[in-house]
Amino acid sequence: MILWRPYTQMQSSSPPILLDSAKGSFLYTKNGRKIFDGISSWWLITHGHGQEDIVEAIAKQAEKLEQVVFSNFTHEPAEELSELLESFLPKDLSSLFLSDNGSTAVEVAMKMAYQFAIQTGKPKKSKFVAFTHSYHGDTCGVMSVSATSAFNKPYKGMLFEVLRADQGTSMTDPLSQWVHSFKKIMEAQGNEVCAVLLEPLIQGAGGMIQWPIEAIQQIYDIAKSHDCLVIFDEVMTGFGRTGTMFAFEQIKRTPDLLCLSKGITGGFLPLGATIASKEIYTAFLSHDVDKMLFHGHSYTGNALSCAAACANLKLFKKINFIQIISKMANAHRESLKNISNHPLIQKSNVCGSIATINLNHSNKYGNSISREIQKMALQLNLFIRPLGNTIYLMPPYCSTPEEITTAWSKLNTILNSNIELFSELEELN
Hints:
Number of helices: 14
Radius of gyration: 22 Å
Low-confidence stretches: none
Helix content: 25-40%
Distance between the termini: 34 Å
Number of strands: 16
Strand order of the largest sheet: 4-12-11-10-7-5-6
CATH superfamily of the largest domain: Type I PLP-dependent aspartate aminotransferase-like (Major domain)
Strand content: 15-25%
Mean pLDDT: 96
Structural class: alpha/beta
């Protein structure tokens, strides 16, 4: 049977590399290669591959209980996870709904927002506002609120209409470029909007676009002035990526709905979380069964995933992760001093553990230059996956400054050695 791989053109792609193991920041192949995991295995790994505390927690839980129907039962790992998350969050974010991945965490938030409007006597507030470079996942609801791109273009006919706000793409863009379009939409149709969705501080798959904090603050305040819920999709930005536990801490605004996944288990097991305000949760309380939240997954509240998440969160309490990520950011900045003036580079950014460079070529996802850079990097035992013309590093938190510097040095070598080749490929794109 063929293994059909995600985001892969199976007709022309190279065979996958057979891995044997992973530890810390590195992937190890069957034939002895040691590959630096430059993107935390799609933004999942927090403290490092094979982190012993998480391994032990999963093993211990597997001996007791692996899975049970969460509609009828609860268990210690889920209860402990709820308490641990509560200790990191503002008091008003007080209700935790568990699912199994980031897309569904956002999809659940959208269903909550939509049903909340109905159950609080505002049925006309049925629309969502999202932004032109947003990405929220691959299920139908979240594809609808994601920007039109290679990720959802084939499924256009399956998606529902969304109010789309224009935005800036660079931190040097004027504030009005980030806010004006949203403000106009809300002035015209705010009475029809149940929620606005944002990836706070940095948009991931849309090209690692960093947002000015003041722009998000203004968008939040405008939304609230129109009695509109705010959904923060922190599937990528959560658990330290931007330099604080959650990106919204830097924005100094608390969302009505917070969506988490990816790093929640340290990258070990699938788990999604949608955290709602007390006001939203209360709107679903009733003797009428039709007013409950009609959503669930077979693996909701999986005991093994919850145990992994608890061990992961305990590590955040044990270590000074803010200091660790600050050192990573400094290593990124120092490395980018040696590369950011390269003639092929348009701009560079650092946000916590994430650093990006944008190249002067086609922004099409999977373009030939990005594919070639990824291939060359892998030959140098560096694993990356460019997003259009955006090359980024987001390594696990156990990565040393020296390892980060080495990774950027390899990318610098690739760019310096292939200027003519990339120019030729750009003409063909």
